[in-house]
Design brief:
The complex is a heterodimer of chains A (342) and B (595). Chain A is of the alpha/beta class and 342 residues long. In chain A, the strands form two sheets. A nine-stranded mixed β-sheet of chain A has the order 2-1-3-4-8-7-11-10-9, sandwiched between helices. Chain A has a two-stranded antiparallel sheet with strand order 5-6. In chain A, a hairpin with a 5-residue loop joins strand 5 and strand 6. In chain A, helix 6 runs antiparallel to helix 9. Chain A is globular and about 75 Å long. With 595 residues, chain B is α/β, with parallel strands linked by helices. Chain B has four domains: 189 residues, Pyruvate-ferredoxin oxidoreductase, PFOR, domain III (Pyruvate-ferredoxin Oxidoreductase, domain 3, 3-Layer(aba) Sandwich), CATH 3.40.920.10; 182 residues, Thiamin diphosphate (ThDP)-binding fold, Pyr/PP domains (Rossmann fold), CATH 3.40.50; 74 residues, no CATH class; 115 residues, Rossmann fold. In chain B, 38% of the residues lie in helices and 19% in strands. Chain B contains 19 helices and 25 strands. Chain B is globular. The chains are: A alpha/beta (342), B alpha/beta (595). Chains A and B meet through strand 2, helix 3, helix 5, helix 11 and helix 12 of A and strand 9, helix 7, strand 11, helix 9 and helix 10 of B.
Chain lengths: 342, 595
């Protein structure tokens, strides 16, 4: 059998990871598959990639892709700082950070903001489902006003739009996509991997288990109420992933989610100029008003120095320096002391 | 009147932000350059401008460095503390005061030298009168104490290096002060300074700068920090020295410096950098350690090398940000949730600040864990005498890092967390190497780094971690002893208490007691500490905190039969230790015990 190889003669298997332990049908697994594809298609050596994450369902996924890359599943909301330190010590690696809305919009929003501010050279993926999955269904800060969690209380707080936050901070690459839009997402992740600087991709990735409400006929609550044999609290419905969806530029499609709710995805128009930050922001606000989600590459600016460039670091990654480069000479110390003695 | 030579305590009361610090450092430098034993301590407020500040200079023939218990010469410049400063003086003290301040000085029992400093300063530079009046007291003091004119001139030019007009201005002001005293007073006090000939090797340096230089010579490759008193000058010194010492042949930096958004991020950055193979550090104080605690646990459990310097200030909470304490010791030793234990290295002198500054990285990489350096405001922010900063005598210890496939293959049954050598320390590979990649994690993991909740796997992992940290006991800086033959009382102390221990010892020995000392320089404790306890009849654990934190550690770690003879003398009021205060507490304790 002929195994298909990429430009550096590696099979796709070299980019795969371990089996997923997320709920069956989770959008996050679709994103992991797209990451595998994108990295393979881009022909990046797997060992030159570093996979970074925080805590949450999304942050578990680096175990499920790129098994030949080192990775670091850090602490909740703090992936950006760990990635910053790693990047400064080895600027030659490609950093893929995977985060969620709990990680990036709540506990870690400060680190999210400051990593953008510094234009850290990384791909920052947010698998955004509006809910805390691992702790079983609390609202996140990206949940819309009025949406109900499984116990029926409506969320009354304003959602945070992480793309709008990123744009306002001058993030050099901002995109939004949907976990089921394989083609669009692949293109965006490939572009994000190639971008020199901070590439934020906010991916709507609905939670198959908790992002539903009791009114829905296919909700967790409904199933629990109406099936005697399923009266266990840790019941997870077995679901198929959302089918693939592609929306041509300038068009929209309504997507029915697992719980029966519908979201409207609108691909940004062909005429959108991704160097126009004002147009990008206005498309987000317009979509919000119309209760839809605008997807695609919203903004892109390749001409900003990255963190390590701003610091004028040695061309050799600092991790590769040897003792002679790191420890100044004895003469230099003698000179310092001589001056201090006066 | 009999003269008192090279023994006095001078207290200078000014307001923050008036430029008095330069004047005070000129006095300190002059005395130091005259070869007398001198120490200077800054008692400053958490404020930029206006609040009271005191600078205490102690000249001691015996070399005592703690502030003296009584002030001999008081310089009064600050209205706000005027009355209180006056009240606290013993009869016979010398008072040099700015007579342009319209406040009474009703101390006929003292020796008064009123000087119209503001008016005099205005004659030199009307706009800078407030600042210049400080230099006038330098001149007055020089005349009273008989300080060498050329040494003062040298100290002034050192203080204002390269700024010729500032040097001239200050020289004029000092001379004006001198002349005024000569013309208007006859010396009535007994205090004089005699030139002892400066030790050519000696110089003054702050502990924080010594740590910074140590780190630079230790090959620090990432400093991530967040400003906090009293640690900021560690980072600021690294920032100052890196462009001079750490550029490559292209003029590019071999040390990344980043001011983080908070202490949490600073901790994350050094862990990320340590994971990627760098020598990384941060400097902070207690509140920063509290914030970093979650990451500290990650470093311990995922076994990532990095270095955190804690320059202790008075806690708890925001506490007294500009006062000193040894109040973070137990916090450091067991920081973060769950069972943890960390290496803590504790310098007691500026020379050790430098040495531990570079050694910290060797320990961190050797043991693949976070290493705390523990200093405090007193040691860190005051200038102390040093005679040398010794260039590292050993090659860098980069620990068990596998760089090639060949090295990897030589290790049978490799696993990131498998103890193949039996020393508790596994091998690691670096990101980018492609060698045995794993997903590092703070969650439970097996010897291959794979997620695991298996009870036996967890238990074994935790026991190996304990073994690893325990193995540092004999490798870390060992305690230093000054032992008496009699082995009656043994004092265990650490850190900046070193600056006061000689004075305490002298006071105690004056009572006829024989006192040995053991200065602990690292945690976990060296077995030599246990030996010291064993050998002495009674042990006092002396420290600058309320609860006796080192005492608590000793009680936990010593064999139970030794515990009854170990007693705590812990005292903290925010100030650096004074010899008499601590000696008295020790005598009280011994009396109590012997009852």
């Amino acid at each position: 059998m002929n195994i298909k190889l990429n430009v550096i003669d590696l099979p796709k298997d070299d980019y795969k990871g371990g089996p997923s332990s997320l709920c069956p049908g989770c959008g996050h697994d679709q994103v992991s598959n797209v990451i595998i594809n994108a990295a393979w298609e881009n022909g990046i050596q797997p060992e030159k990639i570093a996979k970074m994450s925080g805590i949450g369902c999304s942050s578990k996924t680096p175990a499920y892709f790129l098994g030949k890359s080192h990775g670091f599943n850090t602490v909740h909301g703090r992936m950006p700082s760990v990635t910053t330190g790693a990047n400064l010590i080895n600027k030659d690696l490609t950093y893929i950070g995977v985060s969620g809305d709990g990680d990036s919009a709540s506990i870690g929003i400060g680190q999210f903001i400051h990593a953008i501010r510094r234009n850290l050279d990384m791909l920052y993926i947010i698998e955004n489902n509006g809910v805390y999955g691992l702790t079983k269904g609390q609202y996140s800060a990206t949940a819309e006003i009025g949406s109900r969690k499984k116990k029926g209380e409506a969320n009354m707080s304003q959602p945070i739009d992480l793309c709008a936050v990123a744009l306002n901070l001058g993030c050099t690459f901002v995109a939004r996509s949907f976990s089921g839009s394989k083609k669009q997402l692949t293109a965006l992740i490939k572009a994000g991997l190639s971008h020199k600087g901070m590439a934020v991709i906010d991916i709507i990735s609905p939670c198959v288990t908790f992002n539903n409400n009791d009114e829905s006929l296919r909700s967790y609550g409904y199933v629990k109420e109406n099936s005697n044999e399923l009266h266990v609290v840790d019941y997870i419905p077995q679901r198929a992933p959302i089918e693939e969806v592609e929306v041509p530029a300038g068009n929209y499609r309504d997507i029915t989610l697992h719980d029966g709710s519908i979201i409207r995805l609108e691909t940004i128009d062909d005429t959108h100029d991704p160097s126009d930050i004002v147009a990008a922001l206005s498309s987000l606000h317009k979509a919000e008003r119309e209760k839809s989600h605008v997807t695609g590459l919203l903004y892109f600016n390749p001409n900003v120095e990255t963190t390590s460039e701003q610091l004028n670091l040695s061309d050799t990654p600092l991790s590769a320096l040897n003792e002679e480069d790191m420890r100044p000479s004895e003469e230099s110390l003698i000179e310092i002391i001589k001056n201090k003695r006066g | 009147m009999e003269t008192i030579t090279n023994n006095c305590t001078i207290n200078i009361a000014t307001a923050n932000g008036t430029g008095s610090q330069s004047a005070n450092l000129i006095i300190l430098q002059t005395l130091f350059d005259m070869g007398v034993n001198v120490s200077g301590k800054n008692f400053f407020p958490s404020n930029i401008s206006g609040l009271p500040t005191w600078y205490v200079i102690r000249v001691s023939e015996k070399g005592y460095q703690a502030p003296g218990d009584d002030v001999n010469i008081q310089i009064l410049m600050n209205k706000a503390t005027w009355m209180k400063d006056l009240e606290s003086l013993e009869p016979g003290s010398v008072i040099i005061y700015n007579s342009d301040v319209k406040l009474p000085v009703e101390r006929d029992d003292c020796i008064l030298y009123p000087i119209p400093m503001t008016k005099m300063a205005r004659t030199i530079h009307p706009k800078l009168a407030r600042m210049i009046s400080n230099v006038i007291y330098v001149g007055v003091l020089a005349e009273i104490l008989n300080l060498d004119q050329e040494v003062i001139e040298l100290a002034i030019s050192k203080q204002f290096k390269g700024k010729d007009s500032a040097i001239q201005l200050n020289l004029n002001a000092a001379n004006l002060g001198k002349e005024y005293f000569q013309e208007n007073f006859k010396k009535q006090d007994p205090y004089v300074i005699e030139n002892r000939g400066k030790d050519d090797d000696a110089f003054l340096i702050e502990g924080n700068e010594a740590i910074a230089l140590g780190a630079i010579y230790g090959g620090v490759s990432l400093l991530a920090w967040y400003p906090i008193t009293p640690s900021s000058s560690v980072a600021e010194s690294i920032i100052e020295w890196v462009p001079k010492l750490r550029l490559d042949k292209d003029g590019k930096s071999t040390c990344a410096i980043i001011q983080a958004e908070d202490e949490i991020a600073a901790a994350g950055m050094i862990i990320g950098g340590g994971w990627a193979g760098g020598r990384t550090m941060t400097a902070t104080s207690g509140p920063g350690i509290s914030l970093m605690s979650e990451f500290i646990g990650l470093s311990y459990f995922a076994e990532i090398p990095c270095v955190i310097w804690d320059v202790n200030r008075t806690g708890p909470s925001t506490g007294l940000p500009t006062r000193t304490q040894q109040g973070d010791l137990t916090l450091l030793y067991e920081a973060s949730h769950g069972d943890t234990q960390h290496i803590v290295i504790i310098p007691g002198t500026v020379e050790e600040c430098f040495e531990f500054g570079w050694r910290a990285f060797d320990y961190a990489e050797h043991f693949q864990t976070l290493v705390f350096g523990f200093s405090d405001l007193d040691l860190g922010m005051n200038k102390w005498k040093a005679t040398d900063l010794k260039y590292p005598t050993e090659k860098m210890n980069r620990g068990k890092v596998i760089h090639t496939q060949e090295q990897l293959e030589k290790i049978s049954n490799f696993g990131r967390y498998r103890d193949v050598d039996g020393d508790g320390i596994p091998y690691r590979t670096l990101p980018g190497s492609g060698l045995a990649p794993i997903l590092y994690r703070g969650t439970g993991h097996d010897e291959d780094g794979v997620y695991s909740e298996d009870p036996e796997v967890y238990r074994n992992m935790m026991m190996r971690l304990r073994k690893k940290i325990d193995s540092a006991r004999t490798i870390l800086p060992q305690p230093l002893f000054r032992e008496e033959v009699e082995q009656e009382v043994g004092i265990i102390y650490y850190g900046s208490m070193e600056t006061t221990i000689q004075e305490i010892d002298d006071i105690l020995e004056d009572t006829g007691m024989k006192v040995s000392q053991c200065r602990v320089r690292s945690l976990p404790l060296s077995p030599a500490v246990e030996k010291f306890v064993e050998n002495h009849e009674l042990i006092i654990v002396l420290e600058i905190n309320r609860d006796g934190q080192m005492y608590g550690i000793l009680r936990k770690e010593l064999p139970i039969e030794l515990v009854p003879k170990v007693h705590s003398v812990a005292y903290s009021d925010g100030l650096p230790p004074r010899g008499n205060v601590y000696a008295e507490k020790i005598l009280e304790k011994i009396k109590d015990v012997q009852k």
